[in-house]
Hints:
By secondary structure, the protein is an all-alpha fold. The protein has helices at 4-12, 25-32, 36-40, 60-83, 92-97, 100-113, 116-131, 155-159, 164-169, 173-184, 191-203, 207-230, 238-265, 268-277, 281-292, 298-332, and strands at residues 43-44, 47-48. It is globular.
Amino acid sequence: xxxxxxxxxxxxxxxxxxxxxxxxxxxxxxxxxxxxxxxxxxxxxxxxxxxxxxxxxxxxxxxxxxxxxxxxxxxxxxxxxxxxxxxxxxxxxxxxxxxxxxxxxxxxxxxxxxxxxxxxxxxxxxxxxxxxxxxxxxxxxxxxxxxxxxxxxxxxxxxxxxxxxxxxxxxxxxxxxxxxxxxxxxxxxxxxxxxxxxxxxxxxxxxxxxxxxxxxxxxxxxxxxxxxxxxxxxxxxxxxxxxxxxxxxxxxxxxxxxxxxxxxxxxxxxxxxxxxxxxxxxxxxxxxxxxxxxxxxxxxxxxxxxxxxxxxxxxxxxxxxxxxxxxxxxxxxxxxx
Length: 337
């Protein structure tokens, strides 16, 4: 149990009080007590390697890199974002005159242009923590320092996401991990639905938040069903897999853009106006996919994998015991003198 001073320090420290990122109490106290560097200096690619001897890491390169990302994101937001306002997606003249391809392209570019403000805020928050020495996460396989312990985004993976899950896993990472711990892993029934609903409530009271996360539920489940039932046929050769990745990237970007429009517009009427202009197609299609394709529960899949591992452990233990018993019996056989 932390003391009152430790509790207040964790919640109100200057590094994360404005824009985060969220981090665990365990990691924060390890940083305050100076244990992070001692523990993480022997971590290589996420695994402990006691043979490694490294000099004390410096956050300067990581901080400069993240500040560069901040500068680029801020410049993009102040220039390009204004050229592609999200509200133009519901402009009556645009909706009535533009062809479908033009509307898809504009939807994608307008929502992509809306993301840099988040890139700026999260990269700046990460840089502030790194500058204070918080965020060191060991070394990669090449021996380079990793300052991503509390990073909140991976821009490359976001913009190249080939699935709804891949996008979510790299967007607001620390908060997503928190939702996984407090809701998804603990919910026995429909954890995906419960997590999206809790996420909507966590974001605030604007109706657009709820419309976004409720829309994300069928799209996520349908995407999971498609991936589980079709991906195996597209990974046999590199060229076929590349084609599959390209198609799923396009589908993911369109689905993400369609889903988050209410998150930006916030109000009910503009959001419904946008969905009506698209004839609710990405609401209806996922529901039809869920009716046609079987959906395998992630929880059941993980439980099956866990039971398999347990069974293998029991078999290995049994085999080891049999060998040990056999060796003991052999040792008890009298040897000829």
